[in-house]
Amino acid sequence: MTTSEGQEPIDAPTLSLDELSPRVSLSGYWRYDRDNDHRYRVPGYHFILIERGVIEATTHRGRFTAGTGDLICFGPADGNRYGNRGPTSFWQIHVLFAPGQRSRGIPWLDELGELPPVVRCGAAFAEIRAVFERLCRDLDQGGVAFRLRATGAIYDLLALIAGTLTGRTPTGAAIDIWQRARMRLSSDLSRDLAVADLAGEIGISADHFIRAFRGRFGVSPMRYRQQAKLRHAMRLLRDPGRSIKSIAHELGFVDDASFTRLFRRATGLTPTDLRIAPPVDDVPGDDARLYPVNRHVLPLSVPDDHFSQFAPRPE
């Protein structure tokens, strides 16, 4: 099949399960508030798991649309396009399934054949998400144990895809629900986030959520979120190109005056004072993320031209 962009399918070998030797070259978690479009080369396989929103794609296999809870499986291609429509968040990984001349090989699974472009995850979404989160946490770690975990994560992903498509889904362990709640509270800082919504996601009352979160992390959920905003504000204020008003807006404050009041109460300085003062310590609190947001996670040792493999071929 040829798309309107004229991209032809590449001549890629098929790989049986016994021939697979997966290597992850990139992972990441991304959030976009508005439309974004991407054109790139897929040297191996590119998987995208959509947390929320809509992604439209054009490949040599045609055009398709995927939404919340879907897994996209982009196969090897010299030219690929996709774009999110409106607010969208997703995880992604790039995988080579074989080394050397067979690096663009296509996994061929018994009973299924080639991976479909879109998998509706359904009840398996949480388990598939756990695989992506594992790779976002561990891919940039050194040592044989982490390399083996990354390799194992890809086999887990294939098993979950196969189970979803055949109706026989294996189960595994996901990230601790309280760690995920902590990550939610320290990200998406411009949006309103209600404790009741977080509590509802794990099936408990807001009061129970607040008590359990404080027992786990030593601070209330909203206090933790406030500290995360202040830490992020201190980093943004070091950029002389950013106005205090724009920073206040990015962090969800109604105006710069309310931002200034909270900042002074927490640090003893106004935002303007901070900009002219020597560097000061961050606001106390644990700002450790499970994994970064809107940043590629790469293996510990990559060549300087690592991203050149994703440059699209001329049309």
The termini sit apart by 16 Å
The number of helices is 9
Number of domains: 2
Q: What gross morphology would you assign?
A: globular
Low-pLDDT segments: 1-8, 280-289
What percentage of the residues does DSSP assign to strands (E)? 15-25%
CATH topology of the largest domain: Jelly Rolls
What is the count of β-strands? 10
CATH architecture field of the largest domain: Sandwich
The helix-and-strand class reads alpha+beta
| Helix-strand sequence | EEEEEEEEEEHHHHHHHHH
Radius of gyration: 22 Å
Q: What is the CATH homologous superfamily assignment of the largest domain?
A: Regulatory protein AraC
SSE diagram, text form:
Elements: E1 14-15, E2 23-32, E3 36-42, E4 45-59, E5 62-67, E6 70-74, E7 77-96, E8 106-109, E9 113-114, E10 118-120, H1 125-138, H2 144-166, H3 177-185, H4 195-201, H5 206-217, H6 221-237, H7 244-250, H8 256-267, H9 271-276
Parallel strand pairs: 1-8
Antiparallel strand pairs: 2-7, 3-7, 4-5, 4-6, 4-7, 6-10, 8-9
